[in-house]
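U., I forgot to send this yesterday:
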Amino acid sequence: MKMKYLVLAISASALLYGCGGDSDNNNGNNNGDGGNPGNDSSLSFNEKQVSSEWYQQGEAVVAAAKEQQIVNEKGAAKNVILFVGDGMGISTVTAARILAGQMQGLDGEEYQLSFEKMPFSGLVKTYNTNQQTPDSAGTMTAMMSGVKTKAGVIGVAEEASRADCGSSQGKGLVTALELAEDMGKATGVLSTARITHATPAATYAKSPERNWESDDGLTDEAVANGCKDIADQLVSFDIGDGIDVVLGGGRRHFLPSESGGKRTDGRDLTAEWKNAHPTGSYVQTGSEFAALDAASVDQVLGLFTSSHMSYDADREANAKDEPSLTEMTSKSIDILSRDEDGYFLMVESGRIDHGHHAGSAYTALTDAVEFSNAIQAAMDKTSAEDTLIIVTADHSHVFTIAGYPTRGNPILGKVVTNDSSGEPESEPSLAADSMPYTTLGYTNGLGFADLGDVHDADARYGAASDTGRKDLAAVETQSPGYHQEALVPLGSETHAGEDVGVWARGPGAHLLTGTNEQSLVFHVMAHAGGLLPE
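Result:
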């Protein structure tokens, strides 16, 4: 039996290479030295093949890989930056790439976001210990502590029960940020979401309930057993000299109710932070943040909005006095890099996730493009020799790219297919129900809405769900206020369970290739940054 397969393999090989040996039978593809790939094969390459941009691009990537340095030394990364695109699944990366390219006048498909140019990439499995499709609390805890845990809990092991303070006692997990502070490094936490929200909170807090952002959410059992709310934990963080730079939204969880906040204990945590950091700076607007001198400022607390910060498109369109994620990232690096021991920085683009939950591809993707801009700023300000940069997501979304749109078709538009000659049709393609359809869509959620020029995707929650097919013939689907169709009616679009991407540059980056558990991210940061004790 083995001999039979061997004969078949030899015969196939003879057919392949024998037919290419005679130039008269090679369709004129013998191009001499210019067309031969340079090995001993008698096959020749057509000149159009080797001169193709795709062929040359591939050769360039292979050539560049030969020069790529693999650094596996413990502690080789003086600095570590973790970028988390909340909800930035693979389909989001693809669509954001196309949109970013089209915003620059390109077809879009050939474009690369800043982090896609990093030399190492892989896949991350996102499930929680008790859920196939995860939430941000459990996933970020895995990345920050090296231990997977349940959905809804922050910084505590899976043995704890959600919203049960007593069960979480003694089960707190040490994070990469805490390790960095303990060894004297500078630290920073940035987010466009509330700074007490699940992803940023997992860098510094221990809570069996992600919704305990301020004391108004604590249960009687939690108070009786001594659990502290997340905002309180941030202000009272006492490892090292405290977190050096904290920027994001969520001011309401730091202020008492009589001052427009949510706290019921009467405490003003911003005042407490200022008392604890007499040389620090507390800022509430983009203008105040811009005025900070990165060369001299000490610790910084920036709470720019009552709840989440604005979507990037809304911030720009309505001139909101909030810093962009790129501005926050750039200045934070300038501040933290003054520490001779190095730094650990976590940057979250939290509102990619929120745009998807609201069924707004426009909002999610424009936030993802700004996320890419922030990463480029970090790459420009750091060296791959001493700084490990990791870019990933906590989970994906049920966001799809479908149909057969022609090359360069607006990614937010209706599907226009090609005719038999390969040229775009003059009108959008019609589905079996005789109505046009968009390239982008959602499996579930609130569904269709046409809010025109409204840039705040959260406005969608003010209307009832409207799922199923709609006649989009007269609808401008590229407008900021268009919300894609959805199939299953839910009060909010949900996360998805597939793997997410991870991209990396710098010492230890190669350790993230392949398909790995999400908890590996911590171990790579700890190893490369030398964060773990001997």
